[in-house]
Amino acid sequence: MPITPLDKISSYRLWYTGPRGATDKKEAHPAPQAQSPERKPPYPRPWWFRFLSGLLFLAALIVCPLYGLAGPSFILVFCPAPIRHALYTNYRSLLDPISTALVIALAGGGIWALYDGKKEDRFRRLQRKADLALPWEVSAERRWRNKLTKARAKHDRHAEAIALHNIGFWIAQQDHPDEAEPFLKVALVLAREVNDRYQEERILCDLGKCAQDRGDMDAAEALYRQSLTVTLMLTPEQAPTRRIPMIALLEEVADSYTLLGRFLAEERNNLVEGRQMLAEAEARYREMARIHEQEAKKYRFNRYRRTSELRMRAISLEDEEHMRELQLKYGAKSE
After folding, report:
1. What is the C-alpha separation between 212 and 5, in angstroms, rounded?
2. pLDDT digits 0-9 by tens, 178-217
3. For every residue of the chain, which 3-state class applies, written as one string?
4. Which of 130, 163, 221, 283 is the most exposed place for a label (fewest CB within 10 A)?
């Protein structure tokens, strides 16, 4: 399936987005609430297990060499004992069975901890090698599935909504819109439950993309318009963790206008309203460039921050210019 300009827009609407490589259509994507019946592998170990293993190995590393260095003194003490047919009382404490058993147990535990650590290291190396052999997008989906499991274990509804959204997004980018929609719909319910409007408008956008990929343009337009409506109700205080919340808000609004404008012009042949949407996006990008310029002036003696702000200003100006070009393009079509 060829990548359309709308795919490019959707790809940078989320901070975790990117193109997804197509895989076998027979590959199954479990439902959002499905639990895997497979036995969980022992590696990687949880952090508390690795901490206890490290303590065990450290104790063995300290005690066992000290006990081994006492070996020559044992020879000097115990070899004359058969000749004297007696062992001094103050030496008998060296044969205390509890101390001996403890040292033997520490030695065995230390050897096991070392062996288990090496096995885990080998597992991690093989896992990294296998992940590198997979497309980046497949690895990203796997990571978000792991995060979903952790979020459900902690009963964190917000983290669960974000994880489900990401999983649905990556499946949709794989050209499986029907399989992505259940994840996105559950994520939408959770986002509304925790009152995360940013997640809500992004999920509505991705649901619209799924409807568009299925060929249901009426549903796609309705979802894109819902996404824009939610976006226009956002406030800078609701922005995700960003250095400049107002920039985050303007970027969301501009992207929503761009997405809906291009959809109306290219898919619905509504060139007039599409150009209006693009004009709104152009104004937001222009405002973003102005704010970046003001921020750059604040960091006259901070070269890194100033350069970063100027680079972002240049990107915003490029987006503004691109919106003008699209308006001219669609204006020429309408004539």
Report:
1. 13
2. 999 999 999 999 999 999 999 999 999 999 999 999 999 9
3. CCCCHHHHHHHCCCCCCCCCCCCCCCCCCCCCCCCCCCCCCCCCCCHHHHHHHHHHHHHHHHHHHHHHHCHHHHHHHHCCHHHHCCCCHHHHHHHCHHHHHHHHHHHHHHHHHHHHHHHHHHHHHHHHHHHHHCCHHHHHHHHHHHHHHHHHHCCCHHHHHHHHHHHHHHHHHCCCHHHHHHHHHHHHHHHHHCCCHHHHHHHHHHHHHHHHHHCCHHHHHHHHHHHHHHHHCCCHHHCCCCCCHHHHHHHHHHHHHHHHHHHHHHCCCCHHHHHHHHHHHHHHHHHHHHHHHHHHHHCCCCHHHHHHHHHHHHHHHHHHHHHHHHHHHHHHHHC
4. 130
144/42 Cα distance (integer angstroms):
20
Cα separation, 10 vs 254, whole angstroms: 12
* HSE-CB of 121 using CA atoms within 13 angstroms: 6
Tens-place pLDDT, residues 312-327: 999 999 999 999 999 9
| Cα 204 to Cα 139, 146, 245, 274, 279, distances in angstroms | 24, 24, 21, 19, 22
| Superfamily grouping for domain 135-233 | Tetratricopeptide repeat domain (1.25.40.10)
Distances (CA, A) of 234 to 86, 197, 323: 89, 7, 23
Specify the pTM. Answer: 0.66
User: Which residue has tokens 């559950």?
Assistant: 186
User: What's the start-to-end Cα distance of the chain, in Å?
Assistant: 31
Question: CB neighbours of 194 closer than 8 A, spacing ≥ 6?
Answer: 157, 158, 161
**Domain boundaries, given as residue ranges, for the chain:** 47-132, 135-233, 235-335
In sequence order, the 6+-apart residues with CB closer than 8 A to the CB of 40 are none
Q: Are 295 and 309 in contact (CB under 8 A)?
A: yes
- Euclidean distance between CA atoms 57 and 108, whole angstroms: 10
